[in-house]
Specification:
156 residues, Rossmann fold
């Protein structure tokens, strides 16, 4: 079975893929924070993707695009701020609400947001966030005091 992971949130998708059975093949559509990759780049990646199941992290723009392009069955994975904050937004809340209603399955990463998700999609379930201590551990503070720069959108 080919699973297309769209976006990622705190490396949850990347961690999940490591613990899945060998009969799953994964394609992971990630994006960087630059304008091109957040807009046309992710649109192109979603349009070109082919899979048996689509799993989108964070119920905002990528989920909306996957639904618009008919990527089904679609699992929407809510991680927190999408349901706690963006859903209440006058400007963007309608997108999250529509995504919640239209996803074939909704997973929530925190038990505190399950009730919110169930109001819009009765099939919503709590799915604990996998923790990878190799990715998340205390790191020393940057001694040079520099600010981390965004990656170049046009590099490989």
């Amino acid at each position: 079975m080919k699973v297309v992971m769209i976006n990622d949130c705190s490396f949850v998708g990347e961690t999940l893929t490591r613990y899945m059975q060998n009969n799953f093949e994964f394609s992971h559509l990630k994006r960087r924070r630059c304008f091109f990759d957040k807009t046309f780049g992710i649109v192109w990646k979603i349009l070109q993707s082919r899979g048996d199941l689509y799993h989108v992290h964070y119920l905002f723009q990528e989920c909306y695009l996957a639904l618009k392009f008919g990527k089904r069955p679609l699992v929407g994975h809510a991680h927190g701020s999408d349901l706690r904050d963006t859903l209440r937004s006058n400007k963007w809340g309608w997108i999250v609400e529509q995504n919640l209603q239209r996803c074939d399955k909704v997973l929530v990463a925190q038990p505190t947001i399950l009730k919110i998700a169930k109001r819009f999609n009765g099939a919503a379930e709590y799915f604990p966030i996998p923790y990878d201590p190799e990715k998340f551990y205390p790191r020393p503070i940057n001694s040079e005091g520099g600010v981390k720069k965004n990656s170049n959108c046009f590099s490989a």
